[in-house]
Amino acid sequence: MTDAPARADGPGREAQLRDRSSSVGQMLLDQVERSGNREAFRHRDAAERWTSLSWNQTKDQVFELAAGLLALGLEPEARVSIAATTRIEWILADLAAMCAGGAVTTVYPTTQHDDVAFIMNDAGVSIAVVEDAEQLEKVRRDAELYDRLRAVIMIDGDDPDEKVHSWQDLRELGRTLLQENPGAVDEAIARTGPDTVATLIYTSGTTGRPKGVVLNHDAWAYEGRAVQLFALLHPSDVQFLWLPLSHVFGKALLALQLQIGFVTAVDGRIEKIVDGLGEVRPTWMAGAPRIFEKVRARVMMGTQGGVKGLIARWAFSVGQRTIPYRLAGRPLPRGLAAQYWLADRLVFSKLKERMGGRMRFMVSGSAKLSTQVQNWFYAAGLLVIEGYGLTETSAVTFVDDPRAPRLGTVGRPVPGTEVQIADDGEVLLRGPGVSGGYHNRAEANAESFVDGWFHTGDIGELDADGYLRITDRKKDLIKTSGGKYVAPQKVEGILVANCPYASQVVVYGEGRKYVTALIALDPEAITQWAADNDLGGQSPSELARHPKVRELISGYVDRANERLERWETVKRFVILDSELSVDSGEVTPSMKIRRGAVVRKYQPQLDDLYED
Ligand code: AMP
């Protein structure tokens, strides 16, 4: 086993770390005391204008909602499910449920009815918060489940059933309770301690039924405090938040804000991100790798031809050459410095402006970020650092340091988190952020939580300074018939990074003589390409079958193969008719590809690829 050297924590760090709030509700109260009138959240109103909530206003709304939940009979640790997109009401409902002593069970708005019913039954949900009529319908389809619910809160709209309360109703119920008993919510917060269950997040896993990861209040208080001590983020920062809050990465961002006190602008609509960045001008943002891949692919596509293309390619090659100097903190040689200045003026400054113009850094997490994509951003002067964690560790366990980034690594552990690399390379984690286990899953718990160490299933390497590099997942390794191991994530990452038209790639080859791939095209990107190449008017699925598109993709696959070991290269591929989707069960709600399910579905097409 290999241990990471302890982070340069300095004396007193442990005591500082222990000095944290006793619960999420207490974190809110502490932040309100520090920053009452300062801005906490920015969100769009009905007319799409940005509007702000101060910490005081946030507390007032949260207290009304929490009192409303108490008025509806919410009991300590009783489950409150939230099924909604990323929006201010999600955050307020989450805080309210936790302040009232309840435990939030997150449900992706895209999760199908069957899984919604499974999750809600497994968690034993008492009160369901649903975004709209569509989410309500999913809960209602299971009559027994619906019957057992104490109440349903609807964020948008209302419903005649007396069990259903509108958002305004809930606030009204809360106001009435607070008039009778002004201390009701404070008392509920006081009853909630570090070990009280705060959150159940179901990991959809890429196989089997979802498992509910139980996270207590201290896990969130710890996450907030540990990242605060890392001194990466400050109260003056502005975050742009669009990640799904049903996923642990999004949830952790809320804990960081609660502890550190920066402003969060929230809008979960992907199509609004670009506008939002320009309007909010955030200083940092977190995202999944796909969003960074998309930005890069868009820019590359927009600058493919003509003089503009030449200039962009020149600028990026100059940027690439500056990387070793900048990473080492060394000055650029004079000639290169002049070229980099010009590249910035001509190309990079525009890109930075599109990200709002004030971005200090961005954080990628929840899956591996391709080093190629990370380098591309860094070449342009935009830093994307990686963080690493799992639902079972309440997200952040490692994060790279923007002050001295090591690209390709996920950085070092946050203070208070310990890591070991097992003999087979598996990453094991221990610390206050690690969950006590899955809800009602004795067998899985015995397998994954051993002597306080959580077995992540990820394969990683630690360097001498304790920086971790995630190289693969334990279960995903493919063994070819030649006995060579292939890390599918690596091959898929390189294919996606090298082909601006590919949105998803699934690599196959278990027990086969070579590696093949299923490639799904980005419908927008391929439609644009078709319009530019006299093939306009065809649907993405028609284009997927067009010989010219095949030729185009084949060229990119060849280029990607140059970056792979011989036994990893993709010899043949199928272009899929459409993107893999959550609806068809091919992708988890957190957008992880269910490789097994996809391979089973397309087995005949894959088999054809091995026919000589
Ligand atoms: P989830 O519980 O859905 O957040 O998934 C956790 C898994 O995501 C981990 O076990 C890793 O396989 C993967 N993951 C998260 N962050 C990273 C990262 N920075 N690099 C590589 N894989 C990651």
UniProtKB/TrEMBL annotation:
GO cellular component terms, alphabetically, are: membrane
Q: Which Pfam families match?
A: AMP-binding (PF00501), AMP-binding_C_3 (PF23562)
The species this protein belongs to is Naumannella cuiyingiana
Q: Which SUPFAM superfamilies match?
A: Acetyl-CoA synthetase-like
Indicate yes or no for the key word Ligase.
yes
Name the family. Belongs to the ATP-dependent AMP-binding enzyme family.
Protein name (Swiss-Prot/TrEMBL): Acyl-CoA synthetase
Family matches, as InterPro entries: AMP-binding_CS (IPR020845), AMP-dep_synth/lig_dom (IPR000873), ANL_N_sf (IPR042099)
Regions of compositional bias (Basic and acidic residues) in chain numbering = 10-21
Region (Disordered) residue spans? 1-22
Boundaries of each AMP-dependent synthetase/ligase domain copy?
30-439
Q: Which GO terms describe its molecular function?
A: long-chain fatty acid-CoA ligase activity
Q: Which UniProt keywords apply?
A: Fatty acid metabolism, Ligase, Lipid metabolism
